[in-house]
Amino acid sequence: MGGMNESSRTYDVVLFGATGFVGVLTAEYLAAKAPEGLRWAIAGRDTTKLERLRERLTEINPECAVLPLVRVDVAERASVRELAVNTRVVATTVGPYLEYGEGLVAACASAGTDYVDLTGEPEFVDLMYVRHDALARDTGARIVHACGFDSIPHDLGAYYTVKQLPEGVPLRVDGFVRSNATLSGGTFASALNQFSRARQMLAAQAERRRNEPRPIDRTAYAPTGTPHYAKEIGAWALPLPTIDPQVVQRSARALARYGPDFRYRHYAAVKTLPFAVGGVVGMGALFTASQVPPVRRWLSGRLKPGDGPDEARRAKSWFSVRFVGEGGGRRVYTEVSGGDPGYAETAKMLAESAICLVRDELPDTAGQVTTAEAMGDALIERLTKAGITFRVAAER
Questions:
Q1: Is 172 helix (H, G, I), strand (E, B) or coil?
Q2: What are phi and psi of 20, to 5 degrees?
Q3: Type and span of the H or E element at 170
Q4: In what helix (H) or strand (E) does residue 143 lie, and over which residues does it extend?
Q5: Helix (H) or strand (E) segment spanning residue 177
Q6: Which of 103, 91, 129, 104 is nearest to 367 (CA)?
Q7: What are the two backbone dihedrals, phi and then psi, of residue 296, each rounded to the nearest 5 degrees?
Q8: Of 186, 235, 294, 385, which cross-links 269 as Cys (Cβ 3.0–4.6 Å)?
């Protein structure tokens, strides 16, 4: 699969940014769950930190005592290129990706190396498409962004929902997200950074639109919904301005199974009206504040990258994404749910995505692709085995 000769590469999977908050959780997941014979390594720019992490991983799995450490610094292009050339799949947690991510995408596209990340930054994804998709298609590299809570539950959840509906008819799917989890510093920094770059984000989007071919015989769109009370789920629905609806729309454009005419809307579900109003006001206030550099700096000082909720807090966290899908006279209710979305489950999703690209029989894809397009059923099966629930709640 992909454009690579597997035996000529030193590693199957390298986790880059392994010593960061989500990086450590992903490394611990791999130490505990990596399949037999997977040749994996951890990478980062500080060898001392990598050695300390390896000691910690060896407590989980004694075989990690000989886990390879790879020194890579995004500022040193040669080290990034070498990482790409020697690896079948690079999984990176090094964000904000707009700041640190492009060199690795470029190196993977050029070397025919599969790439997975955790970005939720639309501007980054659009720029990477414009600059590196064509080369990745040529070399067979699969560039898969947003392989964490952004956007796997939403992308694969919409895909799973579509598969419960009739083929060849117009389909409508709405997703409603609920969670009790807290943010980490890195996630907060990414969100602030995005909000402060609304103009650049729109410019990148427009540039992508000019470059991207669209299917001739089908339409897929993801309009922003309006705040409303959603009877289907018994909660207030607030439009969520995340990357997820864009990813779902891309999957729908890539895969004929979504039908001739597909629409997706994405919401946060909140139980009470004060929360709903607070959510809209809070997002609005954060957006406005992030436009003012001194305020943005003060806000970013509140929660630094690398800080995140502790294990006790993560153990109590959960998420649920409910989907309502209709088409061809049928209506289905489905749900994707799991534990702590931002960290524990995100680490699991990133690790399983990388393993899936290495180990599973997958459709033949290349270039910038979504999780539904590149991995679909195989990844749903892996995540289900790993404890994330995909289920049909009701149908009529």
A1: strand
A2: -75, 180
A3: none
A4: strand 142-144
A5: strand 171-179
A6: 129
A7: -60, -45
A8: 235
Residues contacting 296, CB < 8 A, separation 6+? 192, 196, 289, 290
Extended beta strands in 49-86, E state: 69-71
CA dist 43 and 315 (Å) reads 27
E strand or H helix that includes residue 356: helix 344-359
pTM of the predicted protein model: 0.91
CA distance 64 to 54: 7
Best CA proximity match to 233, nearest among 323, 152, 318, 173: 323
Q: Which amino acid is at 103?
A: G
Given a contact cutoff of 8 angstroms between Cβ atoms, the answer to whether 116 and 353 are in contact is yes
Q: Is the pLDDT of residue 100 over 60?
A: yes
DSSP code for 270:
E
Number of neighbouring beta carbons within 10 Å of residue 359: 17
**Angle, CA of 42, 66 and 80, to the nearest 5°:** 30
Structure tokens at 73: 């610094």
Question: Quick one: how far is CA 232 from the chain centroid?
Answer: 27
Condensed to tens digits (0 to 9), the pLDDT of residues 141-160 reads 999 999 999 999 999 999 99
Checking if the pLDDT of 25 tops 90, the result is yes
Query: Helices 21-33 and 185-195, interaxial angle, to 10°?
Result: 130
Task: Report how far apart, in Å, the C-alpha atoms of 15 and of each of 44, 138, 384 are.
Answer: 8, 25, 22
Residue 235, token pair as written in the block? 């909660």
Residue 354 corresponds to which tokens in the numbers above? 């990388």
- C-alpha span between 264 and 324 (Å, rounded): 10
DSSP SS3 for 150:
coil
Longest dimension (CA), the chain: 60
- Tokens of residue 156, six digits: 């694969």
- Beta-carbon contacts of 62 under 8 Å, excluding residues fewer than 6 positions away, are none
Rounded Cα distance, 223 and 312, in Å:
38
**Res. 131: pLDDT tops 50:** yes
Residue with tokens 């590149």: 374
In the DSSP assignment, the letter for residue 149 is T
What is the distance between the alpha carbons of residues 80 and 366, in angstroms, rounded to a whole number?
21
Distance of CA 185 to the CA centre of its chain: 17
